[in-house]
């Protein structure tokens, strides 16, 4: 089929041609927006799941939904070792500018920029931030040096400004698990206060499956403060939709056995559906796409996934870390007990803790509970076992 018209979209955060199986999540977010807009109590939303299930895409959909409601929004992405103040400062700056464009906050805008400036320069008096703020810092606001206190003060000011013009603001944070735990605690603390004051400031975050745990560990009340949604592989019906609808729009059908084979090969994981769809489309030369096309295309897709999706992650592991991953793969079932990994390798657990911690840090594994480890990428174990080198 014409590669120029290929509709499939494998890639991190790339909008899929058909967002399948996420209606319930979108409805839930719509309800949140409506309720906050009416001044009703509502909880911020946290999405968790493995890599490649569509968290980033969903977060973006939430953001455009909020924008459709005329809310001002900002987005940032957690990164290892990031300064939360700097990143949030930039995000809130954009958000305030959008709020001001929509609602003409007049002198209140200057004052808000002043609070923002206090917030930002408190972390970096040397002014290493590129943020150019044409405002005088507001002394005594958001400048205590305590991240939680300052973030709370900043967001309260932003929330009051939004409320005064009858709108809401939303901050979207992807890869939340990569924030330092103090920063996570500051965010949770600030949103606790925001929710108590019922201000129209919403947080929507996304992260790996252990995000709910990490949040609870940062503050015990995090459990009640947020609404959690776990995103995973798609149901059979949704996976079929994700595969079939984009082709159908271009007048291309799949035979039943072809569909079944793709669902089977992809396990319904959104990233894999896109990758298989893309290669199958390219090898097929007529509609309907049949089992033979799927088999040919799937081989190509697998090769690409092995290099791009799995291989790039495998390459980031040192030989010691690979040994650990290999043992996890050989043990099969996820999650695995770290004690079982040690036993499998015939080494004392203490000898492996460095490799384990590095793998956690690199985001190749996560810990779903005390003494447990699990791959962050679906089917990573199968990839490791099938490797030949
Ligand atoms: N609901 C969905 N239906 C079909 N494809 C999707 C869906 N959600 C995501 N995708 C596709 O899956 C891939 C991974 O999405 P992404 O949001 O980057 O995942 P994550 O952030 O969870 O790692 C992208 O290629 C995207 O187009
Ligand atoms: Mg993502």
Describe this protein's structure.
The protein is α/β, with parallel strands linked by helices and 389 residues long. The chain folds into three domains: 208 residues, 3-Layer(aba) Sandwich (Rossmann fold); 80 residues, Helicase, Ruva Protein, domain 3 (Orthogonal Bundle), CATH 1.10.8; 68 residues, Orthogonal Bundle (Arc Repressor Mutant, subunit A), CATH 1.10.10.10. 56% of the residues lie in helices and 10% in strands. It is built from 16 helices and eight strands. The strands form two sheets. The protein has a five-stranded parallel beta sheet, with helices on both faces. A three-stranded antiparallel beta sheet has the order 6-8-7. A hairpin with a 5-residue loop joins β7 and β8. The longest helix has 25 residues. The protein starts with 22 loop residues before the first helix and ends with a helix. The mean pLDDT is 93. The structure holds adenosine-5'-diphosphate and magnesium ion. The site of adenosine-5'-diphosphate has 24 residues, from α2 and α11.
């Amino acid at each position: 089929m014409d590669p120029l018209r290929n509709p499939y979209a494998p890639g991190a955060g790339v909008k899929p041609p058909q967002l399948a199986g996420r209606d319930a999540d979108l409805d839930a977010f719509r309800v949140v927006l409506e309720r906050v807009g009416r001044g009703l109590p509502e909880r911020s939303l946290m999405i968790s799941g493995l890599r490649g299930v569509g968290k980033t895409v969903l977060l973006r959909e939430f953001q455009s939904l909020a924008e459709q409601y005329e809310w001002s929004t900002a987005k940032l992405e957690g990164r290892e070792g990031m300064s939360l103040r700097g990143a949030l400062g930039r995000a809130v700056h954009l958000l305030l500018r959008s709020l001001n464009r929509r609602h003409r906050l007049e002198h209140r805008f200057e004052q808000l920029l002043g609070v923002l400036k206090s917030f930002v320069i408190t972390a970096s008096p040397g002014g290493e931030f590129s943020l150019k703020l044409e405002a005088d810092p507001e002394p005594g606001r958001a400048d205590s040096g305590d991240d939680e206190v300052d973030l709370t003060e900043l967001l309260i000011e932003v929330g009051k400004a939004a409320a005064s013009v009858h709108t809401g603001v939303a901050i979207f944070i992807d890869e939340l698990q990569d924030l330092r735990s103090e920063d996570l605690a500051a965010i949770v603390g600030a949103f606790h206060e925001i929710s108590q004051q019922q201000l129209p400031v919403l947080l929507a975050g996304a992260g790996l499956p252990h995000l709910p745990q990490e949040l609870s560990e940062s503050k015990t009340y995090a459990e009640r403060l947020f609404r959690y949604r776990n995103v995973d592989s798609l149901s059979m019906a949704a996976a079929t939709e994700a595969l079939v609808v984009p082709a159908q729009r271009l007048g291309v059908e799949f035979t039943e056995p072809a569909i079944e084979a793709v669902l089977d090969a992809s396990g319904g994981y959104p990233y894999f559906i896109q990758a298989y769809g893309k290669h199958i489309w390219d090898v097929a030369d007529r509609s309907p796409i049949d089992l033979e096309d799927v088999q040919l295309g799937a081989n190509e897709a697998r090769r690409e996934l092995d290099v791009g999706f799995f291989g790039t992650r495998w390459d980031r592991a040192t030989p010691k870390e690979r040994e650990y991953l290999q043992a996890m793969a050989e043990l099969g079932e996820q999650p695995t007990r770290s004690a079982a990994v040690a036993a499998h390798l015939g080494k004392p657990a203490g000898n492996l803790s460095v490799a384990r911690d590095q793998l956690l840090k690199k985001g190749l594994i996560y810990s779903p509970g005390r003494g447990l480890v699990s791959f962050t990428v679906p089917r990573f174990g199968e990839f490791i076992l099938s490797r030949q080198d």
